[in-house]
Each structure stands twice: as structure tokens, then as C-alpha cells.
């Protein structure tokens, strides 16, 4: 299969206990014109050996790219996009499953859209459920809705993990540089950049099984001064404000203010001085005003001083 329609892309790291489940859901797909592209981020377990064993018995192509150094998730996404052979890329976690009709549902939905509308879309976005069949997040305001992530998240306040098929040719046009300041920078920077440029069709159907377990809570539980990922989160909020300052302040003021507030919090968690936080801020006056509120929030919520 030289030109699959869909590249299912999975970044992996020490995923040997999850991959058999993922592989079985791929084998059960009733649409077969796809490849599975895996970028392994220097796993220390048997992830790669397991993937190679899958390749021998799979009825679809499996391609494995092995990083020579551990990369951030955003860098792995860039690697996956640049190496995808499909027309569409479908990003999944290394522990995520697909419903049996996931790919055929997407193909049928896409083919039902007129060509002119297709040309103006970056892709289709669906919902997820957990391993127990529970719907994750909230539904879109319309069953077939053309919008973007800014409007979807900030205006209509749709929550939860989503399931997306993106045009690879448009993904490759998004160039974003991520400094190697932390092992984790939220990948939403990439998706916001994409959504700032293109529209999607959001569809109220569940296509991905988002496996929830303790590792998904590790980041949220690590919040605090000097903890892991604080540099990455501080950079995330700083970049969101820098790149989308005008549109957020104009159309989504409360979100803009929240991002400003979180920039202060996470910069302090990253042990930055207040003078440094102010000097690096896009909106210095607003930052100065928010600093005492951030200190008060920390004392009231966590009984500690920023």
C-alpha cells in the first residue's frame, strides 16, 4: 500500500503493557486503507520489540521511527507529521483504542461533504469515551458544525479530549519552534496555531477510546514550586499570550486574563523572580496587577506562598 488514505500516528514511550490493546483495535477496523506510524521516544522497555512483532502479523503497514534522544511530545508530533504517508493524520496516544468503525465513519463523513466545503476544512473532529464507555467532556453545540478550537473551547466552552483527523498537507505548513526547556510543553500550542489558521468540522460522534489511568494525572498532581514541567507550562502560557494577545483580549477577555494569571503562577513555580516575570511579560501592567492575586490564590487554595 503506497498511498494510504490515513496515517494513524502514535508517539510511544514505555508502552509495552498498552500496545497489544491498541494493536487489536487497529486490526478490527472495517476500513483498511491506513498505516500505523509509531515514533518511539527512547523507550527502555520492550516497546520496540513488541511493535516489530506486530509488524510480522499485521494486515496493514506499520512503520517505526526510533528517536536517538528523548524528545518532547510536541517534537514527536512534528516528526510524525513530516513522515506521514497518508492524506490524513489521526493522532492517538500509545494507550488509546479506536472504535471498530472509527476509520470507516470518518471516511463516510468526509465523502458526504461537498468538494468546496472540503477545500476549506483542515479536517474532522469527533469525541472520545473512556475504557468503561463513559463519554468524555461535553458535546458540540451542533451535530455537524464548522468552527475552530478558539470558538469551540472559549466561546462555547466545549470540554474534554477530542478525536481529530487532519489534512497532512496543511499540518506540514504549520511551523512552530519549541525550545528544549523542559521534557513537556503542552502540545495545544501546535493545535492552537493550526486552528488560528484553519476551520474544522466538529461532529457529535465518539470514535476514540481514551484510556484513563493514573499516569494522566501525574502532571496535574505535580503542580508546585520547582516541580516537573513548570518551565514548559510557563512557556505555554507566555506563548499563547504572545501569539494571540489581540484576538484573545478582544474576543475572549476572561480567557486572556486567565492565561495572564497562569503565566504568573507557572513562572513562579519555575522559580522565576517577579522582576523576571514582569520583564518577560507581553502585558507588563496587567502582570503587575495580577501578581498579588496569584499570591493570594496560592495561599487560599494550597496554603503556601508563591
From TrEMBL:
Q: Which Gene3D superfamilies does this one have?
A: Spore Coat Polysaccharide Biosynthesis Protein SpsA, Chain A
As recorded in UniProt, coiled-coil segments are none
Q: Where is the Glycosyltransferase 2-like domain positioned along the sequence?
A: 8-138
Q: Which InterPro entries match?
A: Glyco_trans_2-like, Nucleotide-diphossugar_trans
> What PANTHER family does this protein map onto?
GLYCOSYLTRANSFERASE
Protein's name in the database: Glycosyltransferase family 2 protein
| Species name | Chryseobacterium oryzae
Amino acid at each position: 500500500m503506497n498511498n494510504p488514505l490515513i496515517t494513524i500516528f502514535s508517539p510511544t514511550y514505555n508502552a509495552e503493557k498498552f500496545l497489544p490493546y491498541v494493536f487489536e483495535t487497529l486490526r478490527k477496523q472495517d476500513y483498511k486503507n491506513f498505516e500505523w506510524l509509531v515514533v518511539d521516544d527512547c523507550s527502555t522497555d520492550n516497546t520496540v520489540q513488541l511493535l516489530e512483532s506486530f509488524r510480522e502479523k499485521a494486515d496493514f503497514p506499520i512503520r517505526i521511527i526510533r528517536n536517538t534522544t528523548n524528545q518532547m511530545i510536541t517534537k514527536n508530533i512534528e516528526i510524525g507529521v513530516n513522515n506521514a504517508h497518508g492524506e490524513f493524520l489521526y493522532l492517538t496516544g500509545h494507550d488509546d483504542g479506536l472504535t471498530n468503525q472509527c476509520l470507516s465513519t470518518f471516511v463516510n463523513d468526509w465523502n458526504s461533504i461537498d468538494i468546496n466545503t472540503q477545500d476549506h476544512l483542515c479536517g474532522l473532529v469527533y469525541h472520545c469515551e473512556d475504557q468503561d464507555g463513559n463519554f468524555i467532556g461535553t458535546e458540540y453545540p451542533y451535530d455537524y458544525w464548522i468552527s475552530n478550537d478558539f470558538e469551540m473551547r472559549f466561546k462555547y466552552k466545549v470540554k474534554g479530549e477530542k478525536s481529530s483527523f487532519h489534512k497532512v498537507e496543511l499540518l506540514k505548513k504549520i511551523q512552530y519552534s519549541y525550545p528544549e526547556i523542559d521534557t513537556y510543553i503542552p502540545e495545544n500550542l501546535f493545535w492552537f496555531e493550526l486552528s488560528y489558521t484553519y476551520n474544522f468540522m466538529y461532529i457529535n460522534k465518539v470514535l476514540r477510546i481514551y484510556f484513563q489511568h493514573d499516569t494522566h494525572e501525574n502532571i496535574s498532581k505535580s503542580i508546585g514550586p520547582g516541580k516537573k514541567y513548570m518551565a514548559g507550562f510557563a512557556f505555554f502560557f507566555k506563548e499563547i499570550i504572545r501569539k494571540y494577545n489581540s484576538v484573545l483580549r478582544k474576543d475572549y477577555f476572561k480567557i486572556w486574563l486567565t492565561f495572564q494569571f497562569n503565566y504568573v503562577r507557572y513562572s513562579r513555580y519555575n522559580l522565576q523572580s517577579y522582576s523576571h516575570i514582569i520583564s518577560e511579560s507581553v502585558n507588563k501592567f496587567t502582570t503587575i496587577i495580577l501578581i498579588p492575586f496569584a499570591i493570594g490564590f496560592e495561599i487560599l487554595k494550597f496554603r503556601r506562598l508563591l
